Description:
Largest sheet: none
Helix content: over 70%
Low-confidence stretches: none
Distance between the termini: 80 Å
Number of domains: 1
Strand content: under 5%
Mean pLDDT: 82
Structural class: mainly alpha
Radius of gyration: 25 Å
Number of helices: 2
Number of strands: 0
Amino acid sequence: MQTVITMLHRLVAAEDGQDLVEYGLLVVLIAIVAIAGLTFLGSTVSAVLWEPLSNAI
C-alpha cells in the first residue's frame, strides 16, 4: 500500500508535462484569436480586394 501512495505522490508532484500543456494552451488561444479575426474581417477584406476587381471586368 505504501508503494501505491508513493507512486501517486510522485505523479501529483511531477511537473514534467506542465510546459507542454502550457504551450498547447497557448497555441489553441492563438488559433482561436486568428479564426475570430479572420471571421470578423473576412467580409471587409473581400469587399476591399475582390469587389473592385469584379466590377472592372
